[in-house]
Design goal:
Order of helices and strands: HHHHHEHEHEHEEH
Largest sheet: 3 strands, parallel
Structural class: mainly alpha
CATH topology of the largest domain: Rossmann fold
Mean pLDDT: 95
Strand order of the largest sheet: 3-4-5
Strand content: 5-15%
CATH superfamily of the largest domain: HAD superfamily/HAD-like
Number of strands: 5
Length: 209
């Protein structure tokens, strides 16, 4: 199981910064605050509810479809296919699934831009989770029930440390990805890597059967 944004591609490409700019603009327009105040509110919703959208829905009756469409309407020219990533994903036994708090349409565009969509069995996006985001354990339960995942035979790759705890609690192997990963001391993180492609290509593998 793979998170998508800032996991399958490096955070340094800046894609999520573009999304963040559109989230900021959405907050300013919706809540009627200045940019600095709106940003603080957005961060509060993110901390309290797992996603900015959840806070907007609870407190401002925002239509989730309109929000997801607007904030993900960004150029993807910063994404380039990585043959080392593709090779690393291709060599993994068993099914490969995406587990993202992003929207379905956004996931489709990103995977197409990276030219790896064909390597994944399915995408479990925020709409499939009934807008319940990671790290809420209910999102993980829905994911594994929908796809018949045995957590004890699964690994979860993710760039956000706190999102790995529910996976670990269920018995999954956990891999933290990103420049911040080597400094992590969380006991629920099994493996840490700054970049995903080399890690996948040096993994010792065994038969998934």
């Amino acid at each position: 199981m793979f998170d998508m944004d800032n996991t399958l591609y490096p955070a340094e490409c800046g894609l999520m910064g573009r999304v963040q700019d559109r989230i900021n603009a959405f907050f300013v327009r919706t809540v009627g605050m200045g940019p600095a105040e709106a940003r603080q509110l957005q961060l509060k919703y993110l901390r309290d509810h797992g996603t900015s959208l959840s806070g907007l829905m609870l407190n401002h009756r925002v239509d989730p479809g309109a929000f997801l469409d607007e904030v993900h309407r960004v150029e993807l020219d910063c994404l380039t296919p990585d043959p080392v990533l593709r090779d690393g994903l291709s060599r993994l036994p068993g099914r490969r699934l995406i587990f993202t708090n992003g929207a379905a349409a956004h996931a489709e565009r990103v995977l197409d831009a990276l030219k790896i969509a064909d390597l994944f069995h399915d995408v479990f996006h925020i709409e499939a989770s009934d807008l319940i985001p990671k790290p809420d354990p209910r999102a993980f339960t829905r994911m594994i029930e929908r796809h018949g995942v045995d957590p004890r035979r699964a690994a979860f790759f993710e760039d956000t440390e706190k999102n790995l705890k529910p996976a670990a609690d269920m018995g999954m192997a956990t891999v933290l990805v990103g420049a911040h990963a080597p400094a992590s001391t969380a006991p629920f993180v099994d493996h840490r890597t700054e970049t995903l492609p080399p890690f996948l290509n040096r993994l010792p593998l065994r038969d998934a059967a």
